[in-house]
Amino acid sequence: MTDQQLLELASGFGFDHVGMLNIPALEFEPGVREMCAADRCNNYGRCWTCPPYCGTLEEFAARAAAYRRGIIVQSTGQMEDDYDVETMLDTEAVQQERFLELTAKVRELYPGCMPLAAGACRVCGKCACPDGPCRFPERAIPSMEASCLNGSKTCEASGVKYYYGPRTITFTCCILVD
Fold this sequence. Notes:
Elements lengths: L2 H9 L5 E4 L9 H8 L19 H9 L4 E9 L6 H25 L4 E3 L34 H8 L9 E9 L2
Antiparallel strand pairs: 1-2, 2-4, 3-4
């Protein structure tokens, strides 16, 4: 599949923005993982695809180095004001749904792909962690943050906008394919 075909595939799932991922420019930053440890999202130690269980920065970097291509996909919502939580949550839900569907299709084409979501894995309603094993390890998706990628820097290095203006919210995910 060409880069253009990959972008067209992703666009077909309704994302607002798509672009090619610049894999050689990826920077795996310890500071991003430190944000996870602050547990603002309430998933630290409660999700198999989140720290401390998801793997180290070095493991993610080594795994990503094996890929040559990838895509970035985004959904952007227009908020009524800076505190429009409903639009934030709705846009996140739309991005997650689109990304799960895209990931399923890409996994058919590239079984060894590496999807990285915006936020914690949403495959299960509630993760079995830490009391039981991951119920769907073949479908589980770690976040860009868990992998130590800074979303804005990843977009910038890939020539993809990250900020789309005042009163917008954008969720960014990526998939490394081959």
